[in-house]
User: Which sequence fits this backbone?
């Protein structure tokens, strides 16, 4: 298993967990939980593939993603009673999950940019594909839960995707290899998100009265 | 006209009606009614086809679905004044519609599984395609109407899809014919939904505070 | 640059601005603004292309649309402080924007119908594709902003699309050229929208209690 595939599945798990948690807050039944977890974990990549015409989409070709999501849901629902007191102790919600989410985001953006480049897209389209892959699932999750997608408002989220995807493209066009460029991009996305989380950074909002 | 096509159009009509009713509750104009009815009736299959790469999607190839939806909207809007007192008398909303919806759901799940198998999908992907076909339109309807999709919360809805799609696959892999397997799956989805409606069954919800 | 392409980019700009304004009202950060503007401006055409199987979708093939959207966002955010007092003076919100929106709508509907005809669709499917292209972006915008899509409720919006697309098809089938038919359709959509704006026309709503 390549390092990229490993991180891709890790990102899938983390995003699925964020769907499970929101489903739990909305008191969904177990299969509502699966629907929300699946949408969050593979929604962005699905939209990307449909736009690129890379169909059937990635998880139809490799259902490993679905198995990973199902296992994540089952394990999480089984152990949530253990997690709750653990959460009190170590602040999973406030600390571990955002960090895992940042890792998942960085990986998804890198994979999205990479796939667009493979399909022959230019720089700007590849950046947009990276952003769609990174934030698409979370946006769909929030829309289903009838929340305004926090990604559109929250501290430096789309910005981190944009910066990472841009660095990815710059290094790629400078002639660095596919993996090296992707790693650089992922590193930048991750670094910006972690910094934003650590210092609670926000961009100035654009406001019209 | 094959029996499958007949039930497919029946499901289309039923799902369109559920869109019309929600549009009426939201006081939409007549063409808003068409948009919501169409989204509900063909939304799930459209998402399925886009994911499978079965494009142009089914209703572009066979516009009969669109004609059926338009006729349903017009007839329903014309006769709604007759339906209202009828509803008082026989509880269409509480009884007939849920039963028709269960039939539509069962048919759509079966068609979705079947199409995925035709496109060479494995068991898990085919089950997911069945669920997407069955619940996709209703989820889009509820999102447009700014409601939390009841499918994610309601009694044994996605569960019925999952069970029916799984039975469909099991019989198919046991060597039963395409139609026989599909009928078995549809029967199971329908039976579970009708039982859930009759006894107001609910799964225990998964709750995180 | 053909006249059609010019109006297509004009429609893109107008729809992007409507996304920027809503983002400003929701106090999004600058990259949330880009996401909402982009979704509004190219969402309808993207859904159309995914349904038709015209992938990769139009803006992947011609990223000019993305550059135009980015420029629109930057310019609008830079000059919004100039626009606010201007707005007080000349009622941009109440007058200029709806008129531009009507132009964008008319163009998008015409382009959607045209593309469906190029892909060999029949009359009804082409009309539906025109409507999807015209209203899809605005519906996605409103869903992201957690509003009930006003398009489904508002004065004669989808109706204008339907009428324009139908006229487009009628002239096309009568043997008029592609551009002439499209212009007629666009003119009708525009005329109906402008009339509805000027006289605040509404269709009777369809209401179920």
Assistant:
């Amino acid at each position: 298993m390549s390092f990229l595939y490993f991180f891709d599945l890790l990102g899938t798990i983390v995003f699925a967990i964020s769907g499970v948690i929101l489903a739990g807050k909305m008191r969904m039944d177990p299969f509502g939980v699966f629907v929300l977890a699946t949408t969050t974990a593979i929604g962005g990549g699905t939209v990307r593939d449909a736009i690129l015409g890379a169909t059937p989409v990635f998880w139809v070709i490799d259902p490993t993603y679905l198995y990973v999501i199902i296992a994540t849901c089952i394990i999480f629902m089984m152990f949530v009673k253990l997690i709750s007191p653990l959460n009190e102790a170590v602040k999973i919600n406030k600390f571990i999950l955002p960090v895992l989410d940042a890792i998942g985001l960085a990986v998804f953006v890198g994979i999205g940019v990479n796939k667009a480049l493979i399909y022959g897209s230019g720089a700007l389209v590849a950046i947009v594909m990276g952003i769609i892959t990174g934030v698409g699932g979370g946006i769909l999750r929030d829309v289903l839960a009838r929340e305004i997608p926090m990604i559109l408002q929250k501290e430096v989220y789309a910005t981190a995707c944009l910066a990472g995807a841009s660095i990815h493209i710059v290094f790629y066009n400078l002639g660095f290899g596919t993996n090296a460029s992707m790693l650089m991009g992922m590193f930048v996305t991750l670094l910006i998100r972690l910094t934003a989380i650590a210092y609670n950074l926000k961009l100035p909002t654009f406001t019209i009265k």
